Amino acid sequence: MPDTIPAPPAGRPRRSLTTDSARFAREVLEPVRAIVGERGLLTDRDAMQPLMVAWRDNWEGRVPLVVMPASTEELAAVVAVCARTGTPIVPQGGNTGLTGASQPHGDDTEIVISTRRMNRIRAIDLDNDTITVDAGVVLQTIQETARAQGRLFPLSLGAEGSCQIGGNLSTNAGGVQALRYGTARALVAGLEVVLPDGRVWDGLRGLRKDNAGYDLKQLFIGAEGTLGIITAATLKLLPLPTASATAFLATASPATAVAWLRRAKALLGESITTMELMERRCVDIAMRHNGAIRDPLADRHDWYLMVEIADQGEQAPLEARLLAAFEAGLENGELLDGTIAASAEQAAGIRRIREGAPEGQRLEGASYKHDVSVPVSQVPRFIAEADAALAARFPGIRSFAFGHLGDGNIHYNPIQAEGGDKDLWQSFLPEVNLIVHDIVARLGGSITAEHGIGRLRINEVPRYKSAVEMEMMRRLKRCFDPQNLMNPGKLLPDAG
């Protein structure tokens, strides 16, 4: 269900680029055409439309021009034209984001620069365990390229077949394996970035240790394209696990789930890659809207864990370790039931439950999506307090919580009352957000764990960040982008 789209902050440029179409053509369009050629331009509204619309939540924009450079050099030259003419830019990768960060506004005040043609695997260094790629390479392509060389690139998320690594890094993507391997930020050795004035910073150093000054790459990871455009990355590779095991476990509550997580860490150590929590309603709704999904357990329970472990060595010993952790959980009352997949097909069936929950939720009417994080120890308290507060204020609202228990990132997405008026329930969104996010803040959490701010949360940021933190971010923005040309109206309110 679409969230309320906030008005652009006052600092964002408002002048339409098409007000003086002859000037736009002379100063921007033709110089850019000379740089990228006809293959690198889209000016037809119908041809541009797929890049104007987000795949979820009805984010939509309008621009007079989409530019698709084929190289860093072309992209840098285009940005230089924009800097010289004061033309705002919206960088866009695979267009799979969830907060409107890669969608232009709807008033022809910006152009889009898409990295879709920048899709080269530049180099693989197996001795150094790194791979260097263009920003437009699809995440799944990187995973498959690494696997073919006996290596693992562990970033994994639902959109991996279409999202691009540049966007993954610009939003510091998390995914289901962040518990073991960290977010995208932890997987980067070096970056190449086009700065807002068109200069190129070449930081593609595949080093594990570099203590010569500020770690500049970290400024651009998670910055949502507001400080520059990532054009290439050197990424860290790991040994490819030779054995893996998947389980679907029933537990009484988030508190018992956290208790078993603590035990599992002690017994399984770094082999745990995934620890996903979901309540019963998530399973029911996933099954309701996807006939290929089956309940792996005979009896119904209130809460579940999807667990995946992976390591080097043989399959049987790894499965035995998972079984021992499962049995210990049963004996100590942390788990109630469960099954360990006996085949790759059964493991895929378990994963489909987790993947089907958000898609099924979309078909249930108005819902309120929250990508929040709290300390793992506070997950049970957060869910209990948020459920109670919303039930008291909005009788009939249906709880719907799932996500990455291992790192405290819960997708807390309550759904309207069954059979209720969709438009009425949608109007409650601002108050629902306020209730949920205030609880998150009180528990020392963040209102966005892996999706980013974009346009969706831009007006909420000042409430949950200190004045000092806001000023630090504004100073960074002014330092790198004094004209406020890089993705204006995203991430940081009143950046101009």
From TrEMBL:
<dbReference type="InterPro" id="IPR051264">
    <property type="entry name" value="FAD-oxidored/transferase_4"/>
</dbReference>
<feature type="domain" description="FAD-binding PCMH-type">
    <location>
        <begin position="59"/>
        <end position="240"/>
    </location>
</feature>
<dbReference type="InterPro" id="IPR006094">
    <property type="entry name" value="Oxid_FAD_bind_N"/>
</dbReference>
<dbReference type="Pfam" id="PF01565">
    <property type="entry name" value="FAD_binding_4"/>
</dbReference>
<keyword id="KW-0274">FAD</keyword>
<dbReference type="InterPro" id="IPR016169">
    <property type="entry name" value="FAD-bd_PCMH_sub2"/>
</dbReference>
<dbReference type="InterPro" id="IPR004113">
    <property type="entry name" value="FAD-bd_oxidored_4_C"/>
</dbReference>
<dbReference type="GO" id="GO:0022904">
    <property type="term" value="P:respiratory electron transport chain"/>
</dbReference>
<dbReference type="GO" id="GO:0071949">
    <property type="term" value="F:FAD binding"/>
</dbReference>
<dbReference type="InterPro" id="IPR036318">
    <property type="entry name" value="FAD-bd_PCMH-like_sf"/>
</dbReference>
<comment type="similarity">
    <text>Belongs to the FAD-binding oxidoreductase/transferase type 4 family.</text>
</comment>
<dbReference type="InterPro" id="IPR016166">
    <property type="entry name" value="FAD-bd_PCMH"/>
</dbReference>
<dbReference type="InterPro" id="IPR016164">
    <property type="entry name" value="FAD-linked_Oxase-like_C"/>
</dbReference>
<keyword id="KW-0285">Flavoprotein</keyword>
<dbReference type="Pfam" id="PF02913">
    <property type="entry name" value="FAD-oxidase_C"/>
</dbReference>
<dbReference type="GO" id="GO:0003824">
    <property type="term" value="F:catalytic activity"/>
</dbReference>
<protein>
    <submittedName>
        <fullName>Hydroxyacid dehydrogenase</fullName>
    </submittedName>
</protein>
<dbReference type="InterPro" id="IPR016167">
    <property type="entry name" value="FAD-bd_PCMH_sub1"/>
</dbReference>
<dbReference type="InterPro" id="IPR016171">
    <property type="entry name" value="Vanillyl_alc_oxidase_C-sub2"/>
</dbReference>
